Structure formats: C-alpha cells, structure tokens
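Weekly puzzle thread! Below is a chain. First person to post its structure in token form gets bragging rights.
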Amino acid sequence: MYAPPVLRRPARSSPGRRTGVLAVVVGLVISLLAFVPATPASAAPSLLSQGGTVTSSSEENAGTPATSAVDGNDGTRWSSAFSDPQWIKVDLGSSASVSQIVLKWEAAYATGYRIEFSTDNNTWTTAYSTTGGPGGTETLNVSGNARYVRLAGTARATPYGYSLWEFQVFGTTGDPGGPQIPGGGDLGPNVLVFDPSTPGIQAKVDEIFKQQESAQFGNGRYALLFKPGTYDNINAQLGFYTSIAGLGLKPDDTTFNGDVTVDAGWFNGNATQNFWRSAENLALNPVNGTDRWAVSQAAPFRRMHVKGGLNLAPDGYGWASGGYIADSKIDGQVGPYSQQQWYTRDSSVGGWTNGVWNMTFSGVEGAPAQSFPDPPYTTLDTTPVSREKPFLYLDGSEYKVFVPAVRTNARGVSWTGTPQGESIPLSQFYVVKPGATAQTINAAVQQGLHLLFTPGVYHVDRTIDIDRANTVVLGLGLATIIPDNGVTAIKVGDVDGVKLAGLLIDAGPQNSSVLLQVGPEGASADHSANPTTVQDVFIRIGGAGAGKATTSMVINNDDTIVDHTWIWRADHGDGVGWETNRADYGLRVDGDDVLATGLFVEHFNKYDVQWNGENGRTIFFQNEKAYDAPNQAAVQNGTVKGYAAYKVADSVAHHEGWGLGSYCYFNVDPTIRQDHGFEAPVKTGVKFHDLLVVSLGGQGQYEHVINSTGSPTSGTSTVPSTVVSFP
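Winning reply:
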C-alpha cells in the first residue's frame, strides 16, 4: 500500500457440508502433538493417531463423539449405537509402518473385533482379529503399512454400544528402511543469537539495519534472537525482512532497557511502505518512555510487553497504514496519530489516543468503548476463537517450539500465569535451509518431522504437502517460498491442527492457479476441536519481479483460523502492471466456520475476497482496490460497476463481519466508479457492523458502501462513507 496524502458462534453448517463424524464440542480441546523421530537413529514407534481425523459408524450421543477417542484424554470417550456391527476409523495423515495398537476400553467393550489397515481408504486388510477380547486396556502388536486404521466391532460384551476412552495407533512414518532426515541442528547463518554478555550487540544490529533499511525487494532475510536476560542501552532498528524475538517462554524473560524501533527516514517520513518485519516475545523499557513502531502491512507486533507507551506513527507524524498487535501488553498509552487503520487482538493497553478511519479491537483490556464512526472504534469484548502463533524458545540450553493452546472468548494476553500449550523439541523439526528442495521437505513431513524454515528464499518445483495432523510449519525472518513452475506453493490436507506461521509466499513468473491451499476441494471433516491456523503468512504477487497467480489463498478446510495475513498484488516495485502481475482473486473461502482476525487484502484484478462457506466471520478487514485499472471496462462486472472488495456468495445464509474498510485510488483513470465496496445477500443471518469506503484524494469514487446501502463518496476531501449496521 502507498496511500496518497491524507490526514457468539453461529449454528454449524448443514449436514451436507459435514460427512462422517457429527461432533458437538463443549470446549475446544488442544490435541497433543505427535512424537516423531528426533535423529536418524531414533526409529522407535511414535503415537500417530492423536489428533487425527476420525470417523465412526455411529455415536451414542453428542457427548461421546469419535474425536474423543483420539484426543489424548482418558476422561473422554467415544461410544457407538447399541447394535452390531460398528466401526471407528482414524486417518494418520500419511502412510506409516504401524507396529502397535492400544485400546483403552470403557466398561462397554468388544469381545469380537478386527483391526484393519488401508492405504487408500478403499481396500482393507485385516491386521488382527479376535472373538475373545478381554476389555480393559489391550496392547496389540501388529505389522503393516497404513494411512487409515479401523477398528471393526463384531460382538459386544454388554447390551450397550462399543465404548473407547482411547484408540491409539503407534508406528513410524516415512520409509523406515530408507535414509532418515535428521531433526534439529544449527539455525544457519542468518539467525543471529545474542545473550547479555555478547560483545558488540548494538553494532551488529545496526549493521543488519543498514543493509535492510530500504531493501524492500531484496533477498536478505534475518532473525535476531535474544536469550533470556536483561540488555541495556539497546535500540534495535528493524528494516525489511528482519524479525526480532526473545527466546524466553514469556516476554518478561527477555528485557531491553531500550527500544525496538521502526521509523520511516528511508522514505522521507512516509511509513506506508514499512512492510515485512516483526517483533515478538520481548519486554521493553523505552528510553524516553515511548517505543516507536511506525509500520504498515505485514509487520506483526506479537507477545510484547511495553513498559511505557507505544507510538504507531513515524517521526513527524507522516502517513502510515498499518497494522496489527496481538497478545501484547502496553502499560502506557498507544498513540496511532496518523495511522489510518489498525487491529488489536487479545491484548492489554493503558489507553488509546485517537483513530483516523478504522480502529478495531477484540479481547483487548483497556480498549476504547464502541463508538464507530466517531471516533471510528469497533470494539468486541472478546475474540471468539484464537490460538497464538508458535514460537522458538530456549528451555535451558535446548531449543524448543512452544505451540499455544486454543482459547475461546479470549480477553487479554495468554502468557500470565503458566502458559497453556505444548512444547516440541527442535530435534522433532527439520530445520530447513536455503537450497533445500520440496522433495526433501516433503520427505521430512512424511517421516513425521515438523518444519522450521530458517531465513532465506526458497524456490520449489513441486508443492509442499502438509497432510499430517498437528504439523507445525514455522518460518523465521520472513522465510520466502517461490513456486518456479506454476505449482501451488503449499497445500494442507483435510487434517486437524496444522499450524502455518511466519512465511512469505512470492508468486513466480509462471501463473499458479493457487499459491496457498488449506484443505482439498470438498474438504468436510470437522476440525472445531483442533483447527488449522494460518498466522503471519503473507502472499505477494509482483513487486520483487513479475509474478502471476489466479487466486492467492484458498481455504477449503472447515474451522480454519486466518490470523493476520496480507495478501498483496503489488502496486509498486518491479514486474507491476494490470496484466504483468495479473492476479484476479486474493482470498477465497469455501470452508464453513472459518474465522479471519486481521485480514488485509489489496489490489486484485477482480474480487479481493470471495466468501462461499457458511458461518464465516471476519474481525477487521483492510482493502484497497487495484490502483492500475486502465478504465471502467477493465473492472466492469456484468451490469455492476467494479468487483466488490469483499463478496459474500448469494447462497450463504450466515456470515458476520466487524470493522471492514475498502479504499479506492484509481490514479490511471480517476473517472472509474465502484458500485460498492461490499456485496452480500440480504438475509437475517448475514450481518455487518461498522463498514466504510474511502476515495483517496478523489481518484475514483464509490457509489455505495454495501450493495445499494450507504452514501457515495465524493470530491477530493478523502472523507469516509460509513454504514454502522447492515442490513
């Protein structure tokens, strides 16, 4: 973005969208992550079933769903209808060599049953059978390759159904006889790790900043990591593709008596291009009492404790177009000043001084009261569902990745008291370094390893497939993935609990139909107990060179949480033009019950967001229509003038959004008109709160805000047209 001068959970989806298990979950349960081989020599069987996608022939009632048999909790259970036969089946996510089954029966057990294996969910072989099952806890030694494992009950020991506390499958993934990819290892040359005794910290940080300050489309990628302790007289200025983070379990474990600074001197005081950088997991005692974080898109401020104030504007209060804060505590006031829009989630602030167009808060202690449009504050008391981003930390001398637990109706930071979640040793990650191939990356996932991308640029000639439940894919230093031959960069299977975080996907010169696909087409499994999260995953088409993609991100999996993304068709840089970096669609959501918190999507040739799934929710949306539309005909959508920034399909019955804004700046042809920024069916279950459209300097105009509702923008005064409630 380069702005011109301007000062409750809805009902679940219909049965047709959900095949297999019908789960009613009273509280979200975070599944334990699978234990996987740490080194080439460690081929011991691992628990593969936990958190996997599970289906069954029946369920006794809503309180005993099939998911309870693989949740790692001996106090919850699956029970079937009171008849024979019955079955329960778990998808391991990838092919595995299965060596052991553990059945933890409740009192209603099976005397007769089979354990069956399949690699394709179609053809089954019997790995074990009995007609004299004893109940209790049964440990069965088996042998065979399978992705799908099914217990088929043929005879009940009681008049009741089959009832399992846990259905556990153990084995090894990948080819046990082939070469094993080692887990763990060093973090590579672009991860700089400091402790309080490290000499020359300020000089090294300054050196990185000098290199990255204006390198908007360069190849440098850096992560600056600080071990727990206290650091005096630090001013860490952050340029492009630079991440700074503490290595403690909590922000207060790593304290700067100093600042983490983003300013805009490189761009003459204009902060609207301060993209692609991050600060996480640090406590700051700012030198003058206020830290400066003057950013725009793709610059998350997460898990931070500022023991003072926070200034979101550049020195001189020039233009700024951010931004995003989550899981952070700012003891003093936050001053947006010239910031045009901002989203803050699950945090605590000592005050908030002003708003320009759109300031949105969910789950923020100390947030200003709801008052949109004057002041333009949209305030939700809690965030419906959230899971904080995974992060690297030190447990003594051992690196681990902490995966925070899911929270429902969250308010305030997640790190007071004992942090809730799971720790995974680095030895269970393939530490990916520049030069790694997609083939090796996929082999690591099949083997059972998680992925930690070190800072760098990665070219892939095939899709990275994440089809194992609970896999963590974490990037450091804005690790960047480029598909070279028109493939989809990353695909996620219809499995539970995948975590994608901290990546930049850059379109290649050959058109990709999709860059990031979460779930296969037609995905239907219920992931409400353990959703996939997409956090700080940014997508770029053009800018660093010609790139094309028909659709940037597609969400097919139900229950996915998209927490802070910037999906950007470039409006400046190299390889930019109406057809040069053609990209028709930004985000398409086909899954049900998808939640977006902090959604930034800009400049696409057609729809920026298309929402086809039921029960979708968006909290905060920021958009600009494509600057470079050559004329009205180029954006004409049948009889409608222009493609809406945010389109909800006519078939959708339930959808809700809060704090959404769309802006136009048609500088190639200022006579272009948009009928509206938002388009949605007029139904009682489709609701929007606090919408606005803005014409930047009068370069093009909107006729309405949503559908035919809302006043037109007019003139050159850059005054928003707003709708407080729709319909």
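Puzzle host: Confirmed. Bonus trivia for everyone else. The chain has three helices and 54 strands.
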